[in-house]
Amino acid sequence: QSQELSEAQIDYHAALQALVENGTRMVCTGRMHTDRICRFESLCYSTEAEEFVYFHSNSSVMLPNLGSRRFQPALLDLSSVEDHNTQYFNFVELPAAALKFMPKPVFVPDVALIANRFNPDNLMHVFHDDLLPIYYTMQQFSDLDLEARLFFMEGWTEGVHFDLYKLLSNKQPLLREELKTLGRLLCFTKSYVGLSKITTWYQYGFVQPQGPKANILVSGNEIRQFTKFMMQKLNISSEQSSSEEYIVVFSRTINRLILNEAELILALAQEFQMKTISVSLEEHSFSDIVRLISNASMLVSMHGAQLVMSLFLPRGATVVELFPYAINPEHYTPYKTLATLPGMDLQYIAWQNTDREDTVTYPDRPWDQGGIAHLDKAEQERIIKSTEVPRHLCCRNPEWLFRAYQDTKVNIPSLIHVIRQTVKSKPGPKRQKWSGSLYPGKVRDAKCQASVQGTSEAKLAVSWQIPWNLRYLKVREVKYEVWIQEQGENTYMPYILSHQNHTFSENIKPFTIYLVWIRCIFNKNLLGPFADVLLCST
Ligand code: UDP
To answer: Atom 16 of ligand 1 has which residue's CA nearest to it?
Structure first.
């Protein structure tokens, strides 16, 4: 048995007996394969077949029990990327009695989180698809603590950012290839399979052109809880007192270059009267980059995965994303979406090179670095003449790759002009206090009293109490919205009121039933829930 897994001693015979008698037990959350995470006891994996195995016995549990719908298309997504057909999870079934004829199981004593990394060589994918989802999946299930072990099943080698994955748990993560060295049949005592998608904000364009996810559920607060954790693990103190403000230019050194970087750095330093430093993944350690970015006033970078590091910027900082010629910033917004998440409190600015003179193209490079020499002549000419890459699907659109891998001479006056439209004085971390926005509760004890004057006029006096949570809050402005709807009509009269009572007489008819809807509003845009509808008869 492997050294790796033998830290916790387990009683082998008891474990084997439990497996044979109880079989596999699975209980999942989620209604669809795209939002499902499953918890297993005694899930096994055959390293020869490269298949997970579910053992049936008298005590096994399989919830949901989908029958053959388990293959339509899968039980669940193993990565956080939604419904990607290379990322599906399933298992094969066997009776527990078959264990008699199988290799002796090797038990994994650690609580396991089993998942796929999506693209571990690209920093944006590492954070967005893997690290944040793993972190919050672990937060969701209390036995996925720092003693849990991560199992990456996508089949890649460690990749250049493996050290980051190691921060998430105290145990070394294991890769699919490594499982072979542990045994022929591995049985996970307790495991969770799948990743939470609750923190992801971007879809990469597999079924429709890339863009922000339709229903973003994460805010800056949760992002910053994650970055705080990562910085603690990296031994970087978050609140540094060094008062000097500075700008970071995050450069790429292999491709998509800024050709006049020295000039750019000088111009930024001069314009904003701030020290300006340049970093790159090639020349700086990850920790050094995080340390620098986490105290920067502004981050300037070409579009590209390195910009995901704006996760670590302090509140109030500015992100400036530079786009090469013919690439419409509005069509590629992973970093804009991140910077503008509610509560991220970052300013986002996009600049695009619109001058053909300032771009350097590489038509003769290999296709995956943007070369187009493999295309027919007419197509090559069309691409070279085009002034904007049309919207496209991921991931091998040659026109997109051609333009994405251009180098750019940044037009400094044009860039400064664009930044100045947003950043009026000095950029930089406003030492803001917590600005979380709290919503009002329901108004309470709503009442109405009607009075009729003659045959054509009536009045409706409505009153209510403040929401319960308002007693404990300082709120700049408290207003109430009241909708008065005649029963059976589908229109209503809306009112915004400052007090807790009001007598309505406009358009109020005698001998009519009105539905009255009331909600509280904090600071103009924090809308609370409507209280139970009030029925009022005049
Ligand atoms: N990368 C880098 N320097 C470079 C080019 C790329 O550090 O000069 C990194 C980049 O940050 C990403 C990975 O290499 O993590 C893959 O880059 P690619 O251009 O394929 O992806 P993109 O940045 O466009 O998402």
So the answer is: 122
